[in-house]
Specification:
The structure holds 2 protein chains of 2 kinds. Chain A is mainly alpha-helical. Chain A has helices at 2-21, 24-38, 45-70, 78-99, 104-132, 137-156, 166-173, 182-200, 202-212, 214-219, 224-250, 261-271, 283-302, 307-334; strands at 176-177, 180-181. Classes of the chains: A mainly alpha, B alpha/beta.
Chain lengths: 336, 502
Amino acid sequence: MSDETKNKTLLDWILQVFVRVGVLPFFLAIALVVFTALSSKFLTGQNLMNVARQSVYLVLVSLGQMLVLISGGFDLSVGTAIALTSVVSATGMVWLSGVFPDAIWVAIALGAFMGFGAALLVGAINGIGVAFFDVSPFIMTLGVSSVGAGLALFLTGGVPVSGLPFAFGDMFGFGRLWGVPTPVVVAIICIAVMWVFMSRTRLGTQIYAVGGNIKAAHLAAIDTKRTLMMAYMICALIASLTGLLLTARVESGEANLGGSIALESIAACVIAGVSLRGGIGRVENVVLGGFFIVLVQNGMNLAQVSSYMQMVLLGALLILAVIFDQLRYRIIMSGR
Amino acid sequence: MTSKTIIRTEGLSKRYPGVLALNSVDFDLTPGEVHVLFGENGAGKSTLISMLAGANTPSDGTIYVGENKVGFDSVADAQSHGIYTVFQEFSLIPTLTVAQNIFLGWEPKIGPFIDHRAMRKRAKEMFDELEFDIDPSEITAHLSRAQQQMVEITKAFHGDLSVLILDEPTASLTDREVDHLFGFIETLKARGVGIVYISHRMQEFARIADRITVLRDGARIGTVTMAETDDHALVEMMTGRAISAIYPEIHKGDGDVLLRVEKLRTAGIKDCSFEIRSGEVLGIAGLVGSGKSRLFRTIMGLTTRIGGRVTLAGRDITRSTTREIIHAGVYYLSPDRKHEGLDLVKASQDNLALNPVMDRFKEKISGWVNWNAVAAKTEAVADKVELTEAYRKKLVSQLSGGNQQKVLFGKAFGQDVDIYIFDEPTVGVDIGTRAALYRLIKDLAESGKAVVVISSDLPEVMNLSHRLIVLAHGRITAELSGDEMREDQILKHFFDESGTTA
């Protein structure tokens, strides 16, 4: 009898946690247990630090993806924004460092801005299509991702752009600021800014409102078109920043960077409780969601799961997360 | 008595965690009677019928069909017992034809293929029998709401119908269509079909009801025959208080012209001219489809404008966007709280916070949100609309219709505007909440704001307004005030074909 009541309260507690934060805590716990059992190297400080460093890129892109998801759409072209940024900024830096050999940081900065510009264009086109022409976000961003990927390959002829200024890779790829790897510093700043943006600024609130009920938002005097535009453009901008960090890491401009990141970032967001119906999502959970995906990939590597099988598992994980999201939505709406 | 019932419940209860939605309710229905369920929103009417319809399973108690104890697993299961329900939310697929909808799931076939011709023919026969004037090959989305309702009812005529449950069937019907529906209910009664009927419109009960069961807070307060009761007694049973003072006395203010509409035209609206004055409640009456809502949606920039001029305090806003008009001081309350009004997956207070966040408080730097100020303002608004403390943190989707409407009203007070346009402000709202909302309208008008009330509920517009504009076929057919606002006068203008502008 007492066992039964104990079981009941445990079940209630699990349900409560599930409704409040979603499926992520359970997935995280399962992943930790499974991979610790499979590999002795998994649960070590060294490895977890490694995961944290590798997850920077996905966490960043997921933050942008979160914005678009909360606004009620999604962005399949984040990978393209990364590739385009990489190619454009690398080309720019190589060319500019030839023009100003003495002012290498000017060349790097200008090259980076060219990359940002290219990505912003991608975001703006997405935004215009979705906000002004009512194209479904799926088709719009899918189309743009093809256009962008094609352009990136066309610009480089499919060959990586090499000969980047040494200082660029040295600083943003492998460098450290106050003893912390630069990409991690960039990510921390970004996370803080996004948190403030979503919870303290009017535009952040507008994005939640538009995703929650776009007609109601319109009747609340919110410029819904501008809000959608901003969501897509900020998403592209963050993807672009990630593109720069990745370019610094590989020390060349590559058109195939960010190939699978659209799927991964959507998975990270959904697992972290961002609703695919829009209107719901929290920055801190999404950070953890991005970390989780990389943790699983790292665990699978240590457990010697082949990269092909990893693709299968990642896709399955995404679908599972959506199923749980659907379940959670139903529980929330029915008021249990 | 018992031997004659077609459906009967004993001690029927439904428990959700923390809420007893239905508390041990006994209910019975005899062949050929219309049994009305009456009560405020959240009283348990919908819960009761959802269990009779098989859409929900009881936590306690039993349902008997005839003499047999039954437990329905699904709506289809209930239908196989001859119980058919027309829910408020239609189950029609908008992209299919009417005939396809009616025969969905049991299409007539030739071998493995659907026999479309037979389907259309039989649908036509069913419509003829019911005297519904609908083309079976029309795409469902092209029908009016009233016609869709008729299709929904027609769907019930498969197999042997013994119980028909109608949930607020007249909410979107015109008077003529209501007459038609009632005539049709009479035919069903003559055939021995039992009808469970839910409605908020008491004036309908005298015409069709045999017995009335009143529910309050999930419990049955009593069952009375129509012959031995009246409106006052019913309202007292429903609310636990008397009918008086539902409509407050509203004092008329000075009446400066705030908004002037001149010869406004759009699809379905022809040359409408009128004025909105401060300190006054302007009522807008008309049948469903008369354009009364469309007229104001056009003014708000929600529908494209074709011609005419709208000036707000001397400023031309004919071509302004909705956002600019709201900022200029006009608030529009949507009649559709679920689709246009509220963010259902957020808490009530978050819904209320949206307008204060968007309002350009003067002391605040634009772009940053001062959550403390917003929270204070939200709290004040929630107090004002009398939203119970416990509901403020709850998700809007979990509130009853009446409380959702309070939240929607609260959104109107999140900013300072001069003109409030309330489009169907009390649709599907119980009397207790109505009285509260009417008091808010009174406060607004008496504080010098202009209030427009668009409503299909004639007593509501008549009792609230100082001035009443009647629309028919997209034209203003009358502008009445004072003693002219009598029911017979207004109704006459409802059907005015000439369209002379007052």
